[in-house]
Fold this sequence. Notes:
This protein is of the alpha+beta class. The chain folds into two domains: 7-166, no CATH class; 183-304, Nuclear Transport Factor 2, Chain: A (Roll). It has helices at residues 7-10, 24-35, 60-68, 72-81, 85-95, 101-112, 120-129, 133-137, 139-144, 147-154, 160-164, 183-199, 202-206, 225-238, and strands at residues 17-18, 21-22, 209-217, 220-223, 240-252, 255-265, 271-282, 288-300. Strands 4-3-8-7-6-5 form a six-stranded mixed beta sheet. Strands 1-2 form a two-stranded antiparallel sheet. The protein is elongated. The N and C termini lie far apart (75 Å).
Amino acid sequence: MNEPFRPAILLRSPREKMGGYVILPRLVDKVRLHEQKRLPDDYVPNLLKGFNPENGLFPFDGRFLAFTGIDPEALRKTILGSPDDQSVIRWVDQVAIPHTDEEKESWSRSMSETFSEPTPERIAHRTRSFPGLGDLLGLKALGCANSFDLIDYDEGRISLEDLKGTGGKSLAEARPPFPPFSKETALQKVRLAEDAWNSKNPETVSLAYTTDSQWRNRSEFLAGRSEIVTFLTRKWMKELDYRLIKELWAFDGSRISVRFAYEWHDDSGNWFRSYGNENWEFAPNGLMAQRLASINDLPIREEDRKFRWPQGRRPDDHPGLSDLGL
Length: 326
């Protein structure tokens, strides 16, 4: 009688590292188990496979192979011909594309710490791969979850509560798009922030920030959502008929820099255009963990106003800051 397959014992977590690489220890285990005919059938299709253009899937084995430039068959033969892990990593170091320790760490973090975009295709694939988990997490959270976390939960290394996470890893509060940002997703993040602030709803705005988010706004320092709500309530009682435009300035990894301008008047009818720059840093689940804002106020005449759309979200066809020459 065959012994039951116990993945938490026989397979290492995808988070474990060898030579600075995540995925590799697990890949070594799978190759050895497959040779012994002990690897279950559902693990075999993605073994040492690269990107599949037919279904759009990019297995972790293939991501490691792409990053290192290693031939899959050569790696398989090396694993099976090596007496231990150290022999494998010495060979990998000899033949892989050269990467610094910092580059390896950055690549490993991009695999182990990032959330997924909850596209319909990803949700459908995960619903098939993890039956019943969508009912426990919710479909959006299932789509957002980090893939390593899903594997560790499925194989019994972490609990459901661990999978749900807390703080910057909370699935319940996940706000796509997630870091690390591309230009496209950074632009989305900037527009989402602009839309939220133009709602002038302090409670709604605060939910885009981690529960312990740290702010510096002008010379004022804030910590946590309660202080954010209090600050925004006071801000929009003073800054009347508020309208805001944000524009992406730069992005890198989990950080985004923006410039912005907003127009408002005080209770005496005096109009201002406030110019500012913001530096943002995001948690893995897409909530903003830090916001640093520097702002200057310029008195303007009412007839010099440039932001005149109806209160609320800026229309898609309304010019941005650069288009307005600001």
